[in-house]
Write a structure and sequence with these properties.
This protein is α/β, with parallel strands linked by helices. The chain is built from 24 helices and 24 strands.
Length: 754
């Protein structure tokens, strides 16, 4: 099998409502789009009703809910008949246990404990007592606990649990029999403090797997490996490698097993300026770093001072983003990760255990500026965190210094677990908390992004792409995923707000003063969201607001919802949609945004499809989309809806570029900046990919205020060039106003190219 990288991918979210058979039927449409590879969400049997598939319960078969084995065979046949490659998302870090009876391995462990043949699969701290099962109400009541008719199971409302052989033979009641098991039913809140198995982030219904054990690795990947061995896979996307004990070793073992022909990308979230470890045998990331670069391209860095000052005045938020991050990580460590901290404590040397070292450990983790280290590499990141923590909390200096030799020693279990902990804390502290609190410009509050950076210069963009071409030319480039906080076109519209600072702040001030929401930074988040998406379905806005305000965890939260505050937030949304005092100014602002937002939508997409890397089109984003955070971004794609002019333009651009990349991949092998001189330099993004030249408009409001392109132009390389987007031919010196007569971007190729 020769190595053949995809030229592009199209992401399908396979679910019970969109099965493999449905995807197979849709393939002719995406072939016409120019797609080269189909990129599928996880397919192993998942928890009943799961719409995402990241909670697999049976690793031996393709999920019957998603089309089953027959559906897989028919999908593969259809994809190959259309000449399409297949890329599959896999989940090595965890599996689903919310319905224990559906997961044979977990069920066996609950029934047999350490004696289960699957005991080595799960990262359980057996010395900490029976496996904690946090399903009881807060008061610990077991009212309603009963036996199944044959007394082989314990039943608690919708939950079922196995009864160990011999533990119910004496006729004892359900509560007493429950106390004899290898598990302990407990109040749900104890998952934050007493859980004794590793989980995914703070999700106790997803149990961590010990794939560092070669036997577990082989057993949990057996179905995936058969797909690869049968020639059914051309690429693999690895979900959440940072949760693994040793991601590098896992990836080396995976590469050795599937061979060098398979394209492998990892869902690794890189901090600003961070590079993938050089010894990972992968082709790149799943694209969050590229998305951050693209988002910075639509934001105006020249407005940073005005927006920062206006944000502080408007909201009263006196903290900078790093202060928000530190406070959020400390809070999350205390509220959600007591179990993980306790487990690290149990494996520390006896002389280091206790409250002082726990507090010091939290401070070190809170000051980490990357998600995790990969010891023995990245020791510098740990040292930076320790130094910053000691500087911030001088009273902890001795405890911090005592911990570092242990946390830096990869042979120590405490060090390995600390690495896993910092990644989870970073994700929950940043993406799911701080990014909902510091709301200066929410376009940057994204997975892989950083709100402390507002925009970039064209020179900064070119530097980023030169590095990308050098270090990760086969990395995935994404604009939207199933995990993004906002869809690509929402961020494109938000970019306009950085050019309309006075107008957007005036709208925000009116919204905040009218609604009187007490959390003013959150109110500003809502105001920006409304400006970007407009009066979409109210139910979607209300669902988004509920998730966003609980993630912010200021006035309300998941553990203890504040109904009064939440009602006020929902009333504010309704008022923005119905009350003329808010409807009219919102409409006025959106009218100002409409044209430049459309420019951003199209330019951003053209750049994403032509920059270094392999572009992914998330299902439906070949058209304009207004998705918010999941589950909104996983709702069915409505291909039958009425298409706007912008929808059709975006679809046209996607089609022409994907076909070009598929048919002439040789045009996309290099990166050479093309710069515009003069006062309009920051409004043009130009580069030559080795035969395909991209020219794209950015910061359209500022461009219009400067009078448009005027007589600005460029001299093209020798020959005649055809714009694949408009069909126009150009040569010699060209006027940019002419190049962009039909679209705000152009992709030029030699005219003689068939």
């Amino acid at each position: 099998m020769s190595r053949s990288l995809p030229t592009s991918t199209y992401r399908y979210q396979i679910s019970p409502s969109f099965t493999l058979q449905d995807a197979a039927a849709d393939l002719p449409r995406i072939v016409e789009l120019g797609v080269d590879a189909v990129y599928l969400s996880p397919l192993l049997t998942s928890t009943t009703g799961s719409d995402h598939g990241y909670d697999w319960v049976d690793c031996t078969q393709v999920d019957p809910q998603r089309g089953g084995e027959a559906g897989w065979v028919s999908f593969v046949d259809a994809a190959r008949a259309h000449g399409l490659k297949i890329v599959l998302d896999i989940v090595p870090n965890h599996c689903g246990i919310s319905k224990a009876w559906e997961n044979p391995a977990w069920w066996s462990v609950l029934r047999e404990g350490r004696q289960s043949p699957y005991a080595s699969w799960f990262d359980v701290d057996w010395d900490a007592g029976p496996i904690l099962v946090p399903v009881l109400p807060a008061d610990g009541s077991v009212a309603g606990l009963e036996f199944s008719p044959d007394r082989s199971e314990l039943v608690f409302h919708e939950h079922r649990f196995p009864v160990a052989i011999g533990s119910a033979d004496d006729g004892a009641g359900a509560e007493l029999v429950a106390s004899r098991q290898h598990y302990r039913l407990a109040p749900w809140q104890l998952d934050a403090t007493e859980l004794n198995y590793r989980r995914f982030f703070a999700v106790s219904s997803l149990a961590g797997l010990r794939v560092e054990d070669p036997r577990v690795f082989e057993a949990t990947h057996e179905r995936i490996f058969r797909m690869a061995d049968d020639g059914q896979l051309d690429g693999i996307r690895i979900d959440h490698p940072d949760g693994l004990t040793d991601p590098g070793e896992y990836l080396r073992r995976l590469r050795g097993r599937v061979g060098n022909e398979i394209w492998i990308v990892v869902e690794k979230i890189l901090a600003d300026g961070e590079q993938l470890p050089s010894d990972w045998p992968v082709d790149g990331t799943s694209g969050y770093d590229a998305m951050a670069e693209l988002t910075r391209l639509v934001a105006d860095p020249g407005s940073e001072a005005a927006l920062t000052d206006g944000y502080g005045t408007l909201t009263g938020d006196s903290l900078d983003v790093e202060q928000h991050v530190l406070l959020a990580k400390r809070q999350i460590a205390a509220q959600l990760f007591g179990s993980e901290r306790a487990r690290i404590q149990r494996v520390l040397p006896a002389s280091l255990r206790g409250e002082p070292s726990d507090a010091a450990l939290v401070e070190i983790a809170a000051h980490m500026d990357v998600y995790r280290t990969y010891l023995p590499h990245d020791r510098a990141a740990l040292d930076r965190a320790a130094s910053a923590a000691a500087l911030g909390e001088p009273s902890m200096r001795a405890d911090i210094q005592a911990l570092i030799p242990v946390l830096a020693d990869v042979d120590q279990e405490a060090a390995r677990r600390f690495q896993q902990f910092t990644g989870a804390l970073m994700a929950k502290g940043l993406e799911d908390t701080a990014w909902y609190r510091y709301t200066r410009w929410i376009g940057a509050n994204e997975v892989g992004g950083h709100p402390g950076r507002l925009g970039t210069t064209v020179l900064g963009w070119h530097e980023d792409q030169a590095r990308r071409q050098l270090h990760s030319p086969a990395s995935m480039v994404g604009l939207s995923t199933h995990d993004t906080k906002r869809g690509e076109d929402v961020r494109a519209a938000l970019g306009v707000l950085t050019e309309l600072v006075d107008e957007s702040l005036a709208w925000g001030r009116g919204f905040i003063e009218t609604t009187q929401l007490p959390d003013r930074p959150f109110a500003w988040l809502l105001a920006q969201t409304l400006a970007a998406v407009g009066p979409i379905d109210a139910g979607r806005l209300h669902a988004y607001a509920t998730k966003a305000m609980r993630e912010a965890n200021t006035e309300t939260g998941w553990a203890a919802p504040n109904s009064g505050y939440e009602m006020a937030v929902h009333a504010a949304i309704d008022q923005a949609l119905t009350d003329p005092i808010l409807v009219e100014p919102l409409s006025t602002l959106r009218d100002l945004m409409a044209v430049p937002a459309g420019v951003n939508v199209l330019s951003q997409k053209v750049v994403a499809l032509t920059m270094p890397g392999i572009p992914d089109v998330y299902r439906g984003t070949e058209f304009v989309e207004d998705s918010l955070v999941d589950p909104d971004n996983r709702r069915p794609v409505d291909l039958g809806r009425s298409m706007t002019e912008l929808d059709l333009a975006k679809h046209h651009l996607v089609t022409e570029i994907l076909r070009l990349r598929r048919d002439h991949a040789e045009l996309f092998t290099k990166y050479r900046p093309i710069a515009l001189g003069g006062p309009l330099a920051e409004h043009l993004v130009g580069y030559d990919r080795g035969g395909a030249i991209t020219l794209a408009t950015r910061l359209p409001v500022g461009l219009e205020r400067r009078g448009g392109w005027g007589d600005s132009g460029l001299t093209l390389p020798q020959g005649t060039w055809r714009d694949v987007l408009s069909g126009a031919h150009h040569s010699g010196r060209v006027q940019l106003g002419e190049v962009f007569a039909r679209h705000p971007a152009a992709v030029l190729v030699p005219a003689e190219l068939a």
